[in-house]
Amino acid sequence: MCGDGANDAPALRQAQIGIAVSTATDVAKSAAGIVLTEPGLGSIVTAVREGRVTFQRILTYTLRSIVHKTRHVLFLAIGLAMTGHAILTPMLVVLSMITGDFLAMSSTTDNVRPSEQPNAWRIDTLTVAGIVIGACDLAFCIASLTMGKFYLGFDIDRLRTLTLVTLLFNGQAVFYVVRERRRLWSSWPSPIVIASSIADLAIIPTMAISGILMAPLPVSVVLGVFAASLALALVLDQVKVAIFRYLRMV
């Protein structure tokens, strides 16, 4: 409902979105949910677009959180069962959280494509999509740990470093997959997102190769995990498109 007079106030109050124009009476403005500050109705289009952009960012954050929770808890439990030890030390957990926060905070500046249709909060379908993508991500993490333990013969300290590197790289893959409802290459991330991603990809691998605060890994292993994560991103993107189409998510 859009109005400007005192007689419009009851309707503005009852409407899902009550909009008072810039020249509206004080009664209409107090009853409305949105008050335009410029003449004309063009600002309504801008407000709708910004609302849909905000919704898409909330959707991305929620989906990424579901994927991470699905993968992270189960991976740590399976890693404990496989090795008999915690596969992340407190120090490595802190490093993982700090570098992960770089990308998470930068996502608020990311380029977002607003949906063409009105949005609806469907936590059930969002949870299903997150669990499916998280299960694929979990399989990748388990494969990486299995390769390090049984094929490369790493001890527990190197397995912990391998776990940190794996979580970093596949976290990047998940981020770029879920930020876009279409194919992951359909839009460019914002400069801040790109800078945060580069910082993450520079800090942890450098520390892992140099053995700073963790057991060192060969360069070939770090590069191998990175290449595998690129392949994971393509696989997850295909899974995402299929599950979004099936669940009719946009």
Tell me about this structure:
With 250 residues, this protein is an all-alpha fold. It has two domains: 2-35, no CATH class; 50-247, Calcium-transporting ATPase, transmembrane domain (Up-down Bundle), CATH 1.20.1110.10. It is built from eight helices and three strands. It has helices at 9-14, 26-31, 42-83, 90-106, 123-151, 156-178, 191-210, 219-247, and strands at residues 2-3, 19-20, 34-35. A three-stranded parallel sheet has the order 1-2-3. Helix 5 runs antiparallel to helix 6. The longest helix has 42 residues, at 42-83.
Strand numbers in spatial order across the main sheet: 1-2-3
Order of helices and strands: EHEHEHHHHHH
**What is the architecture of the largest domain at the second tier of CATH?**
Up-down Bundle
Global mean pLDDT = 89
Distance between the termini: 26 Å
Q: From the helix content, strand content and strand pairing, which structural class follows?
A: mainly alpha
Largest sheet: 3 strands, parallel
Helicity, as a percent range: 55-70%
Radius of gyration over C-alpha positions, nearest whole angstrom: 23 Å
DSSP, total strands: 3
Q: So what's the overall shape?
A: elongated
Q: How many individual helices?
A: 8
Quick structural summary:
Helix content is about 70%, strand content about 0%.
